[in-house]
Amino acid sequence: MKERPILFSGPMVRAILDGTKTQTRRVLTRLTGFPHVHDFEALATDYRWDWRFRGRGEAHIELFHKGLLERCPYGVIGDRLWVRETCWVNRLTRKFAWYVHQDVVQVDPERDEVKKRPAIHMLRADARILLEITDVRVQRLHEISEDDARAEGCWRGDEDEYIGVNVHDSATGKTEPATAIEMFQFLWASINGADSWNANPFVWCLSFRKVE
Predict the structure, then answer these.
(1) pLDDT (tens digit, 9 = 90+) per residue, 73-120?
(2) pLDDT reading at 126 higher than 50
(3) Which bin fits 200, alpha (ψ -120 to 50), beta or left (φ > 0)?
(4) How far apart are CA 149 and CA 155, in angstroms?
(5) DSSP class per residue in 25-66
């Protein structure tokens, strides 16, 4: 079992803590042995790509996927991820003070002599959230299901209540709650850029549980 760091934004940290986020998706970038990620489907049926997985038909494709999952940079089933989040540190000692997203803490930077430390610089010793990977998949971004979108933290808990804005239906003139998929699309674009959803990249789909 290995431990690796992973970044999450404030809203997603809160969703993990309240149990509504149990999945995350990260863009699958170029990997050693997989030189053309954008041609993933072609590679899966190309028998020349790697001598270790020479085969025929479905057996070959199954081995291809197995080989890809083993190279996931976030780990395999059973590995753990410690969450990096923005925190406050003492300006003088540079020691950890509080997590930025702790709602119970009302911080005055001058009074408390603290400053924000970006999530990317969080130390393992300061992490409060440890996750265990329960599943790893590869899929196109647009293949996300409604249940998976809810597991991404886009669902608050009530059947028709979702995080974010409502969607206006011009045909009926009504404003209805967005689907979880629509809210995930909004979330994805806000993090990765306006055109990132339309690009429909291959993504790592990580399912996890919070380790108590």
Answers:
(1) 899 999 999 999 999 999 989 898 888 877 667 888 888 899 999 999
(2) yes
(3) left
(4) 8
(5) EEE---BTTB--GGGHHHHHT-TTS-GGG---HHHHHHHHHH
Contact 37, 174 (CB under 8 A): no
- Tokens standing for residue 137: 């998949």
**DSSP character at residue 152:** B
pLDDT tens-digit profile of 156-194?
A: 544 444 455 555 555 566 666 578 888 888 888 888 888
Residue 165 tokens read as 């804005």
Beta bridge partners of 131: 81, 210
Question: Largest Cα–Cα distance in the chain?
Answer: 68
Instruction: Please state the separation of Cα 98 from the chain's center in Å.
Output: 23
How far is residue 138's CA from residue 126's CA, in Å, rounded to a whole number? Answer: 31
Give the model's pLDDT for residue 53. 45
* Vertex 81 angle, CA 195 and 29, to 5°: 35
CA distances from 134 to 61, 144, 197 (A): 23, 17, 26
Output DSSP code: residue 31.
B
Here the tokens at position 58 are 């479905």
SS3 content of the chain, % helix, strand, coil (to 5): 30, 30, 40
- Of 20, 32, 39, 65, nearest to 204 by C-alpha is 65
Residue with tokens 């009530």: 158
3-state secondary structure 60-89: HHHHHHHHHHCCCCCCCCCCEEEEECCEEE
